[in-house]
UniProtKB/TrEMBL annotation:
UniProt keyword annotation of Transmembrane helix present: no
Single GO MF descriptor: pyridoxal phosphate binding
Protein name: Aspartate aminotransferase family protein
Species annotation: Schinkia azotoformans LMG 9581
Gene3D superfamilies (UniProt xref): Aspartate Aminotransferase, domain 1 (3.90.1150.10), Type I PLP-dependent aspartate aminotransferase-like (Major domain) (3.40.640.10)
Classification via InterPro entries: Aminotrans_3, Aminotrans_3_PPA_site, PyrdxlP-dep_Trfase, PyrdxlP-dep_Trfase_major, PyrdxlP-dep_Trfase_small
Signal peptide annotation: none
Amino acid sequence: MEHTNRPHVPPTLLPRKEGIRLKRSLLIKPMMNEYYPTVTHGDGIYLFDNTGKKYIDGCSGAVTASIGHTNPEIIAAMYEQANKVSFVYRSQFTSEPAEELANKLNSLLNAKEDYWSFFVNSGSEAVETAMKIAIQHWQEKGNYRKNKILSRWISYHGITIGALSLSGHVKRRERFVHILEDYPVVSPVYCYRCPFNQKYPDCQLSCANDLETAIERAGADQIAAFIAEPIVGAAGGAITPPDGYYQKIREICDRHHILFIADEVMTGLGRTGKMFGLDHWGVRADIMALGKGVSAGYTPIAAALASEKVMEPILNGSNSIMSGHTLSANPQSTATALAVINFIEKSKLVENVQENGEYLLQKLQALAANSQIIGDVRGKGLMIGIEFVSDVKTKQPFSSGVQITKKIVDQARDKGLLVYPASAGKEGAQGDAVIISPPFIITKQEIDDLVAVLKETIEAVQNELVG
Ligand code: PMP
């Protein structure tokens, strides 16, 4: 059943049994005046609503449900753990799943030094924790001046005040800007709209060199760390740096004694066709934030990881980090995350992401070649961004009144396909890109189905806008 005639009231405003008064929905939603279908269940890459309508989850929700919905192995593991114990407080007990998960994440990194894990409940908290670990690292070494954390424009690191301070996302900052730190000072890495009007490789990575300029301006003695998303997600739509960028970033951070934090909340755990986003460039960060894919949405859990080098002065000093949440490292969430990671490994899903990601990318590039409104297709693995423009030659964005991303997202949903809205464009706040990021289990046939619906959607929007 298609939702061509959307109801004017949300479906949750259902008549009460007696049929007289309407029951108000008291759930605060992202946009209160919008229509949201009510989900009933999921199955693999599909979701179903209470009208029986079926959706292809073409973006794993918010680039999260990486192994698809209602996986029986994960359900069994969750049930098994719930039968043992779901919650213990971390200052009273440790637990086998929490210990095992920390060791598993370390082994996945396969680095020269060990990485320690601290578990939290959301990507934003993972970023907040990463910030605190960076600052504490320098304090334990007797340096109380290194408190700033540099970040880039066109970035998203989370919604809590610290993580929002780091986020170069105009729209999400603007309401709270007076209580935020001005951390985004570094140029974005955005080859399609190079902020320096240059071309790779002649540019010699001006965007990476801009970190050095920013460090010199602020003073390395004041800076604890630099944070970046390996591939920019929500703020830009899978904006992917050119080769050499992260090698240069690593080198600049080392030379100025600044820690490098990788925000792998979206890219981590296989999404880009490697276990971690930075693996594409053979670079290791000192601290990492993981989220979304850690439990593939089966339970809220995220993590901040810190290298032995970062942890050493902390372990020898205060002996732990000054952070934590009631639900940190609870057995239920950590057991779930372990089951998800084991499933990814056992089913060789990262290989599937690599292979089917290539297939998806080619299909979307072919779509772009015949489109008057697709300006750029980019990304790695199953994290592909599509940027829309009103003129592909001049790269002119649509005016904000057009709400091109919303048009695409809404019309795709009406046709039974979910895609994720991202903001890109010149000011990084125009919202003219979407991310296609289906679950890792997607087959080539299902990719064909996804692309067919997307093509139909984009053509319909194109006809409406440019005729
Ligand atoms: N960092 C990145 C790169 C993200 O994509 C997100 C979520 N979109 C966050 C941090 C914040 O994560 P959460 O929404 O779980 O707080």
